[in-house]
Design a protein that fits this description.
Layout: H1 2-11, E1 23-24, E2 28-37, E3 41-51, E4 57-68, E5 74-85, E6 91-94, E7 97-103, E8 113-116, E9 122-126, H2 129-141, E10 144-149, E11 157-162, H3 168-194, H4 207-214
Parallel strand pairs: 1-11
Antiparallel strand pairs: 2-3, 3-4, 4-5, 5-6, 5-9, 7-10, 8-9, 10-11
Length: 215
């Protein structure tokens, strides 16, 4: 997926090594937006970059919401990756596993479907609009934890505690992007229905649910 490829590229610009089994309160937390589009899909993103100098580990957590241009189906969730600063001053992607997001209102385990990529990153997504809305609201609230394990540290979990929410402009940009996705997804599903293409019963993108309840 093109989102995963962009994450791989971005992580090579970051830095990090934290002790195994750590709980980290990162001193550097930065949010930004990104929108990706290909012939197959369009995706809206909230990008979280965290690090905790002098640790060599850097983590990128991307909240995604997108739709398939062929049938209008919606997908939401996250993509997570980590990188280490090497002695030569370059950054190397590290393989992670057991990635998870947790907050007072949402836990990704048991609610999102996981996929591990060859580059070491992990994606977790859902096509359920109610689950997607709950996840996006939890990210926007800004008090949550991201967890993962590294095979090179005996798979002990490390937890980054995030105590700040995305800025107003980041949230606004994301919601505006999602509004556009909802319109395009609905139009795509309507066109497909007119052509007689099989669609999930009930129709609709579900993005409006996440948008209405996310702000």
């Amino acid at each position: 997926m093109f989102v995963a490829l962009r994450l791989l590229t971005a992580l090579t610009l970051l830095g990090a090594s934290q002790g195994a089994g750590s709980t980290i309160f990162p001193t550097r937390v930065a949010y930004s937006n990104w929108a990706d589009e290909s012939e197959e899909a369009r995706v809206c993103e909230i990008v979280l970059d965290v690090s905790n100098p002098p640790s060599r580990e850097a983590v990128k957590f991307i909240t995604i919401a997108g739709y398939n241009k062929f049938d209008g189906t919606v997908l939401a969730g996250f993509l997570m990756g980590a990188a280490d600063l090497t002695p030569s001053g370059t950054y190397q992607i590290v393989r992670i596993s057991d990635a998870a997001f947790s907050s007072r209102t949402f836990n990704s385990l048991g609610h999102l479907d996981y996929e591990n990529y060859d580059d070491g990153t992990v994606m977790a997504t859902t096509q359920d609009p109610l689950v997607a809305a709950a996840f996006i609201r939890a990210v926007i609230a800004g008090v949550y934890e991201v967890h993962f394990a590294r095979p090179d540290s005996n798979t002990e979990m490390r937890t980054y505690k995030i105590a700040s929410a995305p800025g107003e402009s980041v949230i606004s940009n994301f919601m505006h992007c999602m509004d556009g996705l909802a319109v395009e997804s609905h139009r795509t599903q309507s066109d497909a229905s007119t052509k007689g293409s099989p669609l999930p019963e009930g129709g609709g993108s579900g993005l409006s649910i996440a948008t209405d309840q996310g702000g």
